[in-house]
User: Fold Enolase-phosphatase E1 from Luteimonas flava.
Amino acid sequence: MILTDIEGTTSSISFVKDVLFPYARRALPGFVAAHRDDPDVRRWLDVVATEHGAICDDAVIVETLQGWIDADRKHTALKALQGMIWSAGYQDADFTAHIYPDAADALRRWHADGETLAVYSSGSVPAQKLFFGHSDAGDLTGLISNWFDTEVGGKREAESYARIADALDAAPAEILFLSDVVEELDAARDAGMRTVLVDRLEDYPQPRDAASANGHTRVTAFDQIDAIR
Assistant:
């Protein structure tokens, strides 16, 4: 059973930073103005308002959310709203989601081999499905059996990975977690999962050495995972 991160693992960090984030930032004011009374949108706007002392002005909420985008804050409300905005971008073919060819090939190969594949990302589950459904390699959603976001918990918390194992009805040791973030891998290992550090030259020009990898198996592409999965 394989659990994978997205940004920096299956896909480039630059696509998220340079395409998706700016698109959401630009679209936020218009999106909130058009959908502020939609219950699914209002729910998340109210979460932001409550967290910041009951903000009443939606314009201030938008400014707060834009600040969170600039700071790359992993907040569930922001991720949910970004996912809704990105949906329009994908549907309008404003962009397709980047995925490394070796990752797309490996996911297809592992699925064909009968491997259960799951995704755990800070992006909302709807955003994850949009990402894999509108990727450079086509619609890959059929390869993924389970999707997890930060509603299950933070990615640097061991308890999150324990909850994921429970949801997958698997012992943690049966799950191989792939990520480019050492602290996430540390948390997964603490929960009993096996781990692989994906250290792509495109995203990390300075390779992580053994000390930086903190004991996690290091690969530079998904085809190197076949020998250890």
Q: What stands out?
A: The mean pLDDT is 94. The longest strand covers residues 194-198.
